Amino acid sequence: MEKKKNISMAVIKRLPKYYRYLSDLLKNDVDRISSKELGEKIGFTASQIRQDLNCFGDFGQQGYGYNVRELHAQISNILGIHKKYKSIIVGAGNIGQALANYSNFRDLGVEAVGIFDANPKLIGMKIRDIEIRDIDEFPEYVKNNCVDIGIICVPSRNAQTVCDELTACGIKAIWNFAPIDLTTPDDVVVENVHLSESLLTLVYLANQKHQ
Amino acid sequence: MEKKKNISMAVIKRLPKYYRYLSDLLKNDVDRISSKELGEKIGFTASQIRQDLNCFGDFGQQGYGYNVRELHAQISNILGIHKKYKSIIVGAGNIGQALANYSNFRDLGVEAVGIFDANPKLIGMKIRDIEIRDIDEFPEYVKNNCVDIGIICVPSRNAQTVCDELTACGIKAIWNFAPIDLTTPDDVVVENVHLSESLLTLVYLANQKHQ
DNA sequence: TAGATTGTTAATCGATTAACAATC
DNA sequence: TAGATTGTTAATCGATTAACAATC
């Protein structure tokens, strides 16, 4: 992370994709790759790849390209995958439970350490090795356990309240699965997963193709 | 849908958001709204909203603004929410089951009519009123049941194969939850939900804010 | 050395914002 | 009629692509 001007959101959104393709190359024991080859794989122009990477540093070598292992390490660093993060899931419905069970996030350094719900029928139930607790307990839990990320999986009518409580106890990163736009203090980042919007986009595009 | 040049993806991705905010307004019995007011709610400029809407038609009235009920109906039409769609879910793991249970998509006209998995322990199990079937049966099922949308929730190593089978039996719209980029014929549309990429974006942004 | 490929500047393209005449 | 707000054109801004000197 040598350079660092103002990275545009367009670039940031492509970083995880670079990380994924480089992880694949690494797994396949590829040593080096040029922006041209990588571009053909991902479906970007070589030019764009070089522009993107040069926002963060000079990782390549003229006449050679990029060393896969090194570039992968650099992007891991840029994304912050070298660190470990604790998350809690608020809302143990379908999506909350699915996320708690989904193990892949641990590879990205993010571990779910707590799950909370308001439904007495769910409280006490275990998902993997984590017990679902009463939703009222999460502020206390966050204070005692250095939680980095709050994952909101409650219905939209409760989402803003949960969000406010999460930020009140110091959480600075929120992954929001509720279909609303949350309001947060300036120093808090929110990443939305709006499944309904994604599905509507698909439906629109499908209708266009088929006239 | 009067006009219709080449709608940019940027505009298309905003349509579901317009739909959501207009649904809210409708629910709150708001009769009319100006691009200025709507912009303040959503966080867009008034100019952008007028530009976006004018890709599809002249829905407003000078001096008045937009009639909420009418604009909502128009956007429903543009998105294709007036029609009904049948979907099948391939892969009944955490995410597949969560999507099958999640009822909200029915409001958007999309109904899950079948779920399939390769795991014998899951086959026969019921989610809501739908029985999980053997994954080998889905091509036959698609042919007999006018399925519009294939939802891929299998592990990434199987995702391309499932995708090929879905397109082979005529599916033109794929909602992909596997963390890979699928290859499809030109007349098939794919919408990806890449949760890992979303989470990595959040982690990156959180690290930037906190230096 | 010759070939390959980078980092970076310049050119192009597209998307957003501003401005304003038209008009309800 | 006067005020408000649209639809649309023009101006600006930002992102992508192309080009090429630098250099491994």
From TrEMBL, chains A, B:
Domain CoA-binding: 80-181
Pfam families found in the cross-reference section: CoA_binding, Put_DNA-bind_N
Swiss-Prot/TrEMBL keywords: Cytoplasm, DNA-binding, NAD, Repressor, Transcription, Transcription regulation
Statement: the UniProt record of this protein carries the keyword NAD: yes
Annotated compartments: Cytoplasm
Molecular function GO labels: DNA binding; DNA-binding transcription factor activity
DNA-binding interval(s): 17-56
A GO CC term attached to the entry: cytoplasm
Record function comment: Modulates transcription in response to changes in cellular NADH/NAD(+) redox state.
PANTHER family in the cross-refs: REDOX-SENSING TRANSCRIPTIONAL REPRESSOR REX, REDOX-SENSING TRANSCRIPTIONAL REPRESSOR REX 1
InterPro entries reported in the protein's UniProt record: CoA-bd, NAD(P)-bd_dom_sf, Rex_actinobacterial-type, Rex_DNA-bd_C_dom, Tscrpt_rep_Rex, WH-like_DNA-bd_sf, WH_DNA-bd_sf
Subunit details: Homodimer.
Name of this protein: Redox-sensing transcriptional repressor Rex
Family: Belongs to the transcriptional regulatory Rex family.
Species per Swiss-Prot/TrEMBL record: Inconstantimicrobium porci
The UniProt record lists the keyword Cell wall biogenesis/degradation: no
Chain residues that bind NAD(+): 91-96
GO biological process: negative regulation of DNA-templated transcription; response to redox state
